[in-house]
Specification:
With 184 residues, the protein is of the alpha+beta class. It folds into two domains: 43 residues, no CATH class; 135 residues, Alpha-Beta Complex (Nucleoside Triphosphate Pyrophosphohydrolase). Helices cover 19% and strands 41% of the residues. The chain has three helices and twelve strands. A four-stranded mixed β-sheet has the order 7-4-10-9. The chain has a three-stranded antiparallel β-sheet with strand order 1-2-3, with no helix packed on it. It has a three-stranded antiparallel β-sheet with strand order 6-5-12. The two termini are 33 Å apart. Its cofactor is Mg(2+). This is ADP-ribose pyrophosphatase.
């Protein structure tokens, strides 16, 4: 089958919300094959970066923080949104986030994957990296003013236990830990 057999053509678009992190639109689309029309609620996001940071003693660096949308505290790999203009160099954005959230940096960085968080309604893409040979930054950039983070270092078994308990509950962190476990 060709792209045209799947493509939904936009008939109309209405701006619903324009925020600092997301924009929400409402589209009416024509379904392929003359199958009528359908509504689509869409979330547009500038993208994000995340990092599987592995210490010299083979532990993963996590941050623990409150997530308002979940109304709970969870452990996550260091991550953050791409600021305006950072799309051309997500690796630099990842290193910025790593430094801000953990006080660490690395010159041994490789890209693991790019993935969409919820392609059914959002275009958010996360650029996931791995960083090894971590070094402490003498005077690191400060954490964002609206973030309260605590850094942790855990073994693979401890990370898996945090997944099992629900303390790690986000896809990017689970994906990174699975990658780490595979030893790819």
């Amino acid at each position: 089958m060709k792209f045209e057999d799947f493509e939904e053509k936009t008939i109309s678009r209405k701006d619903i919300f324009k925020g600092h992190v997301i924009n929400v639109k409402f589209d009416r689309v024509a379904l392929p094959g003359n199958r009528g029309e359908a509504p689509r609620e869409l979330v547009f996001h500038n993208g994000a970066v995340a990092v599987l940071a592995i210490t010299a003693n083979n532990k993963i660096v996590l941050v623990r923080q409150f997530r308002k949308a979940l109304e709970k505290v969870i452990y996550e790999i260091p991550a953050g949104k791409l600021e305006i203009g950072e799309n051309a160099d997500p690796q630099a954005a990842m290193l910025r986030e790593l430094e801000e959230e953990t006080g660490l940096t690395s010159e041994n960085v490789s890209k693991i994957a790019e993935f969409y968080t919820a392609p059914g309604f959002s275009n958010e893409i996360i650029h996931l990296y791995q960083a090894k040979e971590l070094v402490r930054v003498p005077n690191p950039r400060p954490q964002d003013a609206d973030e309260i983070l605590v850094r942790y270092e855990v073994t693979l078994d401890e990370a898996k236990a945090l997944i099992k308990s629900g303390d790690i509950a986000d896809a990017k962190t689970i994906l990174a830990i699975q990658y780490w476990e595979l030893g790819v």
